[in-house]
Amino acid sequence: MPTSLGARLLPVWQMSPHKLRWQEAHVEQALLRVRGRLVGPAPVASILLLLLLMLLPPACLLVSGSGGAAHRTSAPVQAPGLHFGQVCSRWGLSFGSLPSSAHNAMCSIVTRAARIESPASSTACRSFSRRRESLFLWPFSWILASSVAPESSAAPAAADRDLQRKVLLLHPDSGLPGFVKGIGSTSWSGAAVQFAKRVNWDLDGLVELHTQGLTDFCQEAWGPDSLRYGLVLGIDLPDLPADCLEAARALLEVPARVFVSSFSKGGSGSGSSSRSNSSSSSSPFWLRLTTDPDSRKQARLFAKVAELWHRQSEDEAILAVLMLIDTFITPLPSVQAQRPVPSFKSILRTATNCNWQILGCLSQPRCIRGMLCLVFCGLADQACAYRCLLSFESVEFMKLSLCALERQNVLNSNLQMPESPKIAPPANFRKAELTLETADNILVGHFNPSQHGQNYSWLVAASSSSAYAQFRLQHQLWYHGPSQRSFLYHPTFLVEALNSSKIWRTRDYKVARTKTAGEWEFSALDNGIFLKERWQLLGADDELRWAAVFFTGVAQNAGQAYRGCMLLTKDGLLPNQNSMEQLEATISRAGLQLWELVAMDNSPADQLAPPPLISPKSQPPSPLLQNA
């Protein structure tokens, strides 16, 4: 019998203790081989889908250990209150031919995970076509698929430590990067300097990141030891001038070289000529300078980096740079902490203690659609992930996430909230000291349903987070509860679901003051995932025409951390030009610039489907409105 994860994949309650112990070592090895290959929501959904597959009964799925063959069984298995045949039938109706090939897919997963090389196992899984395998298996590959073991590298010599801790970001002299879409203006050089500052938030002082324009790079007198960098990243570089060949060839001395474009070759390619004035990484010269990947792992990394830059989002471009530094320079705690570390014990514990939640999800096609949607989101694509969650929101998915991620902590995650940037709220408002009550009243803002029908505090006019900027008409409501000691946050926003339908969604947060006026701690349960956030007031106009807030947040057990800045106005429109100078100074308190804020789409919604706003009677109008 070939070495495998077990003679048979069975529901957890049918596994004997001996079989579980026998499988544990092989599963642990597979999980260790793939630990940390992805960052973002896809691993979380993949783990939940794996739990579903672990509980699929023999009526749906059976992988036999005799020669590695996979087959179906027609014997229905009963569980209290649920007929598994009905579950499989409902799943099959929702996902076409997926169940008919699931046994082959799982056979391939199991054999690849255990690195089975026996002819019997290869024959058993050979019938599974490559095309179907690529569609079904790649979301699970980071969990169980065979992968290249992490390359072992010797400790750097003392003389090379400075070289390995320096990174150069090389950019063109004109145009703009693809992620500059905000309400302010800048240049490539200005954007690069600000981009480097944002990257430094997550470097913890471990790496030096330098930026340089192409002309300055070419004019430098490069000696044999001048390029003391461990990594060079070139973005949107045009064809090289003839007098720059020697300087560019000096890049060959740099151990790692990556050249990409912030514009994809598809729909965004036309924008390259107008905004970046470059042929970017399509230039044959830069392609020849790019480091050849020495493994499949590096090839995947280069593809992920290109994908992140092509999304034209600053947050995702920052992640791309952090991933390169984490791979080629030094491990970064900020990147390592967001990688899931599930173990055999945590998966088994979750499958055992959350079996009814898993079966409940299996019985609802909407729940499975939601998880598949998450799995097929791109790397760390929070915009896609949040849209999936909101499009397929269901009680079953919430219960499964709450049990698996929060109660059982299947990912073994203990991620902490980002500590950078350090922000101090303003000390004064309207030429008086900012108190705790005044700061609360700024958030309560324009809420005044009795006189003006204003059932919300603010509308979001601009945001720095692409995950949140995609939603229209974000009505922000802060209010005190009946006891007046409780402070609550109730956003209402419009979502365009994946089927193009328009859906209003709401959330509820508890808000707690800190000892510092203008700083609050938020907490909420969102789709079964517990969120903790810290919000800070950056500033507000004396007449409440606008306010700016910054937030950092973490889904501790889901391995997700995030930051963002929001510009709030009464009508959702941007402030006039006379306010821009003051607004620019305000958001600079968080180390941000105006071009990093993207204007929201606040076009009117369908009058037949108004937003489900609430009017809590426990909250009177803010006293700040009387003097506004």
What can you tell me about this protein's structure?
The chain is α+β, with helices and mostly antiparallel strands and 628 residues long. The protein has three domains: 12-147 and 342-371, no CATH class; 166-329, 3-Layer(aba) Sandwich (Rossmann fold); 428-627, Calycin beta-barrel core domain (Lipocalin), CATH 2.40.128. The strands form four sheets. Strands 9, 10, 11, 12, 13, 14, 15, 16, 17, 18, 19 and 20 form a twelve-stranded antiparallel β-sheet that branches. Strands 4-3-5-6 form a four-stranded parallel β-sheet. A hairpin with a 4-residue loop joins β18 (546-555) and β19. Residues 264-283 have a biased composition (Low complexity). It holds the Pfam family VDE. GO terms for molecular function: violaxanthin de-epoxidase activity. This is VDE lipocalin domain-containing protein.
Set down the secondary structure blueprint:
Blueprint: H1 17-33, H2 41-54, E1 78-79, E2 82-83, H3 84-94, H4 98-113, H5 119-126, H6 130-137, H7 141-144, H8 161-164, E3 166-171, H9 188-200, E4 208-213, H10 214-219, E5 231-235, H11 245-249, E6 256-260, H12 269-276, H13 284-289, H14 296-310, H15 314-328, H16 333-336, H17 344-353, H18 355-362, H19 365-375, H20 382-391, H21 395-407, E7 428-429, E8 432-433, H22 436-444, H23 449-452, E9 458-463, H24 466-469, E10 472-476, E11 478-480, E12 487-489, E13 492-496, E14 502-506, E15 509-513, E16 519-526, E17 529-540, E18 546-555, E19 560-569, H25 580-587, E20 598-599
Helix pairs in contact: 2-17, 2-19, 4-5, 14-15, 18-21, 19-20
